[in-house]
């Protein structure tokens, strides 16, 4: 399943190449691949790659939300370049 982010959260077209997100099945569950331009503004946080990091949304990230429509629980995934 492929997605392109071509608009900002408030409906304006992005002024760069779109962010591409691909979801595909794998042995462990779901694989998420992201292809996006890197602006490095601000630079990546100093946390350890692959580990939780508080307030990651303050950095350059791609976010995905997965909703369980039965329980209304959701999983938020934030990815930041390392």
TrEMBL record:
Source taxon at top rank: Eukaryota
The UniProt entry's sequence similarity note says:
Belongs to the UPF0462 family.
Protein name (record): DNA segment, Chr 3, ERATO Doi 751, expressed
Q: What is the lineage of its organism?
A: Eukaryota, Metazoa, Chordata, Craniata, Vertebrata
